[in-house]
Amino acid sequence: MHILNSPDNTQPSVTEIQPPPRWLMVLVGGGFLLLIVGTLGSIFVFRDVLRPGQQQRVINMAPFMEAFLPPNPGAGLALPTPLPTFSNGVSPDDLLSVALVTPTPEVTVSIPSPSPTISVISSTATPTPTLTATETPTPTSTLPEASTTLQPASTPLPPTAYLNGFRYVRQTWNNCGPATITMGLSYFGWQEGQEFAASVLKPDDEDKNVTSLEMTSFVNERSGVWAISRMGGTLDLIKAFIANGYPVIIAIGFMPEGYDWLGHYRLLVGYDDYQGVFFAYDSYLGTGDNGNGIAIPYDEADSDWRQFNRKFIVLYRPEEEQWLRSLLGDWADPARAGEFALQTARDEARANPQDGFAWFNMGTSLVALGRYDEAAVAYDQSRRLSLPWRMMWYQFGPYEAYFNVGRYDDLMALIAANLNNGGQYIEETFYWQGQLYGAQGQFAEAETAFEQALRINPNFAAAQEALSTLNSG
Which terminus of the chain is more exposed, N or C, with fewer CB under 10 A? Predict the structure, then answer.
């Protein structure tokens, strides 16, 4: 390599490299330190300060942030397992071998003789005036007492029926209940959005559950439309409602891609016996490829539905109450509906004694009938089997059963488990905690629990009543 010499033919000089100014090094080092501290602080705020809905909004903008979510303490776990104690000497085997309900003739569903004001098969929504949130129905009595002798004229169900006229509503965060009830009411001309329903049903957007009782109360008190809810439904009963022009909402177990088991509501708008499917408007999944509803095979629909004891909500116009009752038949009586649900759950538990949902449904049906000792045994058995860890986000029968038989340790164990896995955003968790404290004479703690329930949902009537009773005592 040729080296150029300096003009005086001496050796080339070496330029001495000066270090950067000290202030620049401090500035760069401080910048890196601030970056590290800021990153760690942002992760801390994301993990430990933001609420779940806020975390989800961050993840929607920056999906990589999901990696920083704290592990869910409930994920993959079952409900706390009870000790093998049998209430009043009743065992799980007794629930399967002893007659639990009065034998009844097989219940079949058909369409009654046509009413002058309702078409037997309604393919489109009957035009109705626009409804607003300020309208309320004229108070009337509840459905008449069910008549066990009611035998509607038997008109076979049509093989297909479909209802038009719904406005699809895609749910916002954690909002399937308000979105689904809004879709159902849109059939009758309801113009409000899911935000209005949510403001009443779940003022705290982190509230994990809206019960069917809350849904029906919202409809009956604020919409100008009426609704009823029952357990123990059948696929034929659902078809009869749809064939007569009544939208039906069902509660289901749901596992969308990327999620553990969740509770969910789904609006059924049609059925087709030739294909063996229901058509559903789903606030999370959409309306299907052609917009006519997601096609759900009958077996799949029933399997998802039974995870909530086949509970359903029917929407109808006030002037159609008698006609709807004729469709309901014995289901018009809540006690009879509970007996139907109990018999179905019992049959399923007999067929598969390892079916946790069947035992849980037995407990729920027995609670509805006020038979708490037997309900506690059924719930005990369900908790020994495999059930989703979020079960107590949505169904509170075990709280009621254990409270009424004085099994406070079991009640506290379920409450503690719920508070550690997301149940701190569910008002019913604190309501039953308050009931437990009150029963044990811890009235200050009970008051705090009821107040927390009302902070989550100020419209929670049971907590309002419990707190009023406590303060008046």
Answer: N
Model confidence over 142-163: pLDDT tens digits? 443 333 333 334 578 999 999 9
> Quick count: other Cβ atoms within 10 Å of Cβ 242?
25
Mean pLDDT of the chain: 81
Any alpha helices (H) in 82-234, and if so which ranges?
92-97, 176-186, 194-201, 212-222
Alpha-carbon gap, residue 212 to 230, rounded angstroms: 9
* Residue 426 region by backbone torsions, left for phi larger than 0, else alpha for psi between -120 and 50, else beta: beta
Which H or E element spans position 262? strand 262-272
Name every residue whose Cβ is closer than 8 Å to that of residue 332 and which is 6 or more positions away in sequence.
143, 144, 145, 146, 325
The Cα-based distances of 434 to 107, 416, 427, 450 in angstroms read 41, 13, 11, 6
Q: How far apart are CA 219 and CA 216, in angstroms?
A: 5
Nearest-angstrom CA–CA distance, 407 and 87: 9
Contacts of 342 (CB under 8 A, 6+ apart): 100, 101, 232, 362, 365, 366, 369
**Mean pLDDT to the nearest integer, 229-247:** 96
β partners of residue 228: 314
Cβ proximity of 389 and 77 under 8 Å = yes
Q: What DSSP state is assigned to residue 227?
A: E
- C-alpha distances in Å from residue 286, one per residue of 124, 176, 292, 293, 302: 20, 12, 10, 8, 20
Side chain identity at residue 265, one-letter code: Y
pTM of the predicted structure, to 2 decimals: 0.80
**Which residues are registered as beta bridge partners of 252?**
264
Number of residues in the chain: 473
Q: How many CB atoms lie within 10 A of CB 83?
A: 8
Residues of the chain with CATH 3.90.70.10: 160-332
Q: Which CATH number fits domain 160-332: 3.30.565.10, 3.40.1180.10, 3.90.70.10, 3.20.20.140?
A: 3.90.70.10
Q: Check if the beta carbon of residue 268 is closer than 8 Å to that of residue 261.
A: no
